[in-house]
Amino acid sequence: MYFGCVKMETQSKDDSAISxxxxxxxKSLIQKFVAMDTHxxxxxxxxxxxxxxxxxxxxxLYRELFQEGKK
Length: 71
Known about the structure:
Elements: E1 2-3, E2 6-10, E3 16-19, H1 24-36, H2 42-57, H3 59-70
Antiparallel strand pairs: 1-2, 2-3
Helix pairs in contact: 2-3
């Protein structure tokens, strides 16, 4: 299923994939950061960046994520 430039796919019951177009220079920066950081790969970096953004800008949603995990 396509929504503009973002493609969303369901991988399994608990996972889904989202792809987005980014400028080449941003991808290059991400690759350099991953190489010097503790992230395993670009995907892990992006997941971590999303979690950080939600934690910073919408902490109530971030808390809900962990409350759902306890159920």
